[in-house]
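Quiz preparation item.
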């Protein structure tokens, strides 16, 4: 478990809140992700190290689903996308985490998975810069999502 990058990140958070952390829920952390072409893109990481949803206790899974839903709603209210995309993959890091991609009408590839653009970004510095550039600073985006979570009455711990 010590080699899991998300477990290491969570251990570090216990000492000092990471600047990319938007919110700490009872069962998960919400981080602003680096792909801000998808303005408001966040990753929700479970506090429990588990590979699969069925590895979690029923109560924890249900609570996590509420945290996921609140996070998505807050992002939606903050950046008003056409649609939220929810992706739970874990092929690279097998620790439960959801990628929350807001998708916008202005995206010429709005019918494609976000990963196609991100695969190009891994190959090409120009595409990388484009995929990481948002319309505002990450600090402003984090503050707006956090503000929505506060207004929604999200629990924190
Ligand atoms: Zn882990």
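Solution:
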């Amino acid at each position: 478990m010590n080699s899991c990058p998300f477990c290491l990140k969570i251990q570090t958070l216990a000492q000092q809140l990471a600047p990319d952390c938007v919110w700490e829920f009872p069962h998960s952390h919400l981080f602003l992700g680096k792909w801000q072409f998808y303005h408001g893109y966040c990753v929700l990481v479970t506090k429990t190290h588990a590979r699969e949803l069925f590895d979690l206790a029923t109560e924890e899974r249900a609570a996590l689903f509420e945290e996921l839903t609140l996070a998505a709603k807050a992002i939606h209210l903050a950046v008003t996308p056409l649609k939220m995309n929810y992706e739970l993959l874990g092929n690279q890091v097998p620790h439960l985490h959801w990628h929350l991609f807001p998708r916008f009408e202005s995206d010429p590839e709005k019918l494609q998975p976000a990963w196609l653009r991100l695969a190009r970004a891994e190959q090409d510095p120009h595409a990388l810069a484009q995929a990481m550039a948002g319309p505002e600073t990450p600090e402003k985006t984090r503050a707006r999502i956090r503000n929505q979570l506060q207004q929604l009455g999200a629990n924190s711990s």
